[in-house]
Amino acid sequence: MFEIGENLDGILAGVLFLIWLPAAIFATRLAWRPSRRALRRSARALSRLLIAALVVLVIKCVAIGLMLSVDWIFADNRVIVQMPLLLLPMLAVAVWSVPRLRALARTEPADVEAPDAAVRAAAADPVLVVPFQVTAVATVVGVYFAYISRPVPSYVDDVLTHGLPIVFAAVLLWIWQGYRLRAVRADGFARRGPGARALRAAVQVAVVLVVLVGTVVFVARSSRLPDTMSMNAHGNVDYGGGTALSHGAAGPAGRVVSVDELRGPQTGTPDKTYTLTARKAKVRLASGTEIEALTYNGQSPGPEIRVRQGELVEVTLRNEMPDENVTIHWHGLDVPNGEDGVAGATQDAVAMGGSHTYRFVAEQVGTFWYHTHQNPLEAVRRGLFGALIVEPAAGPPAGERDVVVMPHEWRTPDENIVAFGTSDTLQRQEIAPGTPVRLRLINTDNNPATDSRPRQLVVNGAPVRVVAIDGVDVSGPTPLTDPRLGLAAGGRYDVTFTMPSHAVRVTDLAREDRGLVLAPPGDSSTPEVVGDGPTFDPLTYGSGGERPFDTGSRFDRTFTQLLDDRLSFFDGGLHLVPIINGHSFPDTPTLMVREGELVKVKIVNRSHQNHPMHLHGHHALVLSRNGVAATGSPWWIDSLDIIPGEVYEIAFRTDNPGMWMDHCHNLDHAANGMVMHLMYEGVSTPYQLGRGTPNQPE
Ligand code: C2O
Ligand code: CU
After folding, report:
1. How far is the C-alpha of 667 from the C-alpha of 391, rounded, in Å?
2. Rounded to whole angstroms, how far apart are CA atoms 348 and 259?
3. What is the 3-state secondary structure (H, E, C) of 94-159?
4. Mean pLDDT of the 237-266 span
5. Which of the residues 186, 351, 611, 649 has the least number of beta carbons within 10 Å of its own beta carbon?
6. How many Cβ atoms are within 10 Å of 205's Cβ, its own excluded?
7. 170 CA distance to ligand 1 centroid (A)?
8. Residue 483 in contact with residue 469, Cβ under 8 Å?
9. Is the pLDDT of residue 663 over 80?
C-alpha cells in the first residue's frame, strides 16, 4: 500500500508539472495571441488543462490516502507541507484567474481581426496570469519535494524552505507581469520581430543553463566529504527526548574514557588462538569461475572460528595486501567496544605489514560472522568474511550435524554469481536418516539487487524449526513446512530438522537452480524447489520466553529514525542517496545514551528500498511492527530488515559502553552515507576517518 501510494504520488508530482508548465506558458502569452479566435482557443485550452489538473489532484489525494492507511507518519509530510503549497496557488487560480479566463473565452470569435487594446489588457492582467505562473513554480517545488528534498519533522523549516521560493517567485512574477501589462497598454498590439524574439529566447535559455550547471557543480563539490573526520564531532545530536548528555564530559567513570580502554581481557592465556592474514588470492568457485578475491588466509569464506561459550579468544590479524587496509568486526557478537573492529572508530585499520590483536570472551552462544569493517562494500563482497560460531560450554548436542550456509554474491565484471560460500552449483552432502541437523544460515550479502525484500531462502523436504535468530535462541519454535525465510543482510537463522529418509534442499530463491542438497547415503534424488510456501514471520513465531520489556515499559529515551532516500549528491557523485532523518553521514543523527538506560527506537521506512539496519554491540528486542505488538517468542535482533512502508519499534538496554556503529547492512547504502552512531556519554575516540586517514569504515 505504502509503495503504491508513494510511487503514484511521485509520478503525479511530475504529471502536475507537465500540466502546469504549458498552462503557465499559455496564460503568459494570452495577450499576444494574433486574433480573437486564437485568443479564445487559448482560453479554452487553458480551461481543459485546469480540468486535467483537477483530476490529477483527486488521484493524488487517493495516493496520499493509501499512505495514510498504513500510518500517519508516511503521509504527514504530504498533508502538512506538500499539499498546502500546491493547493494555495491553485486556489488563487480558481478564485482570480478562472472568472477572468471565462470572460475571455466568451469574447466574440466572429471578429478575426486582432483583439483590441482592452481585450489584450484584460488578457495580460496579473490577477489572471500570475496565479498560473506561481502554480507552475509550486509544481516544480512539488517535484523537488518528491525526489530530492524529503521533509522531516517538525516540518516548520520545510514549510519555509519549500514555501519561501514560491512566495519569492510570486512577488517577482507579479512585478514582471505588471511591467508586461504596461507594455501591452503602451504599444497596443506591437509584437517584437521574429529575430528579436529568437535572440531573447536564446539569452533566456543560456542564463537558465548557466545557473543550472553552476548550481549542480557547486552542490556536487560541496557534497564531498572532508578528508579527515572524527566520530567525536557530531553536528546532529539526538537525545531521544531524554536528558542532554555529552561524550566529551566526564561519564560514569568520572572522566572521559577512550575507546582504547574499552578492551577485552588483556591478560590470561587464551583458550583459542587464531591468526588471520589478509591477502589477495584467487578463489575458485564450484563452477570453475575464478574470483580475484581478498581473503583471510588465502581462502574465502575465511577460516571458520568455532569456540565455546566462556572461552577467551585471541585473534591476530595481519595484512599482506599492499593497497588495502583491513580490520575484523565480529558481527552480532556483543564484544567490548575496543574489540569491535571498526576502522576509524575503535582502531586504525591495519595497513600492509601491520597487525592487530583482538581478545574477547565469547559470552553469547550462537551463530555470528566476521568481516572487515574497512571499505566493506568492496572488501566484504570480494571475500573478507567468515563464520563465527559459539557452541555451548558443554559442547554441541551429541550427534548433531552442523552445516554452515553463507549466501554470498560474487561480482565479476559480467555477472553477479549467487552462491553458498564458494558453491555456485548444486552441491550435495550425505547425512544418515535420523541425524539431527542444524543449518546455520548467514546472509553475508545484500538483498538481491532486483528485490526490495531481504534475501529469500527456502528449505524443502522436511519440516524445520527456526531455533535461533541473530544468535539468540527462539523460545517454543514450531515446525514449518516449506517456509520462505527472509534473511536480513548480516542476519542469521539457525534452522533444525531431523534428517528424513529422503533428500532435503536449501535454496536461495535468487537462483533456484543452485543450492545445497542433503541426502541419505545412496540417494541421488533432488527435491523440487517450493518457493511459494508461507513466509516465516518472527513477530508471531514461537511462544513463551521472557520479555524484559515491552511496548508498555517506561523508556529513558525514544528515538525515531526516518529511513528515506533522495536524488542528490553524496561525496561528489549523484545517487539515490539513502538518508536518515533527512541526512546522510556525517550529518545523520548521533544517538546519545547513558549506561544503564532503557532505549526505544522507532524505525520508519519511507524510502523506495529495504534497509537491513544493524546496531553494533547490542541485541535489541522487537516490540512491534506497524503498530502490532510482537506475540511470538521474544525476537532479539542485531540485524533487522525493514521494507518500504514498515514501522518497527525495538528496544534495548544500554549495557555496553562505547561508540557503536548503527548502519544499513546493504553495504552500498552504508557506503552512500546510511550510517549513524550510538554514543555513550563520556566516551571518545582518538581515531579519525576519511580519505586523509587509513580509515574508511564504509
Ligand atoms: Cu556487519 Cu557494521 O557490520
Ligand atoms: Cu539500506
Report:
1. 29
2. 12
3. HHHHHHHHHHHHCCCCCCCCCCCHHHHHHHCCHHHHHHHHHHHHHHHHHHHHHHCCCCCCCCHHHH
4. 87
5. 186
6. 10
7. 49
8. no
9. yes
What distances in angstroms separate CA 129 from CA 92, 101, 396, one per listed residue? 10, 9, 79
List the end-to-end C-alpha distance of the chain, in Å, as a whole number: 33
Atom of ligand 1 nearest to the CA of 342: 2
On the 0-12 / 13-18 / 19+ scale of CB atoms within 10 A, 641 is buried
pLDDT digits (tens, 9 = 90+) for 456-465: 999 999 999 9
Check pocket membership of 78 for ligand 1, CB cut-off 6 A.
no
Backbone angles phi, psi at 166, to 5 degrees: -70, -45
Comparing 188 with 369, which gets the higher pLDDT?
369
- Residue 640: CB partners within 8 Å, gap ≥ 6? 488, 491, 603, 612, 613, 614, 620, 622, 648, 650
Instruction: Say if ligand 1 is within 6 A of residue 492 CB.
Output: no
Q: Which ligand is nearest to the CA of 491?
A: 1
Q: Which residues, 6+ apart, have CB-to-CB distance to 190 below 8 Å?
A: none
Closest C-alpha residue for ligand 1 atom 3: 331
Cα–ligand 2 centroid distance for 434 (angstroms): 41
Cis amide leading into 154 (omega within 30) = yes
C-alpha cell at 265: 581481557
For residues 180, 182, 187, 192, the Cα torsion angle rounded to the nearest 10 degrees is -10
- Please give the angle made by the CA atoms of 105, 109 and 115, to the nearest 5 degrees: 85
Nearest to 345 by CA among 676, 660, 638: 660
Give residue 448's pLDDT. 75
For residues 538 and 128, the answer to whether their CB atoms sit within 8 Å is no
Question: Which residue's alpha carbon is nearest to atom 1 within ligand 1?
Answer: 331
* Mean pLDDT, range 432-446, rounded to an integer: 96
Backbone angles phi, psi at 466, to 5 degrees: -90, 105
CA of 698 to the centre of ligand 2 (A): 13
Tens of pLDDT, residue by residue over 535-568, are 999 999 999 999 999 999 999 999 999 999 888 8
Cβ–ligand 1 contact at 329 (below 6 Å)? yes
- Ligand closest to 377 (CA) is 1
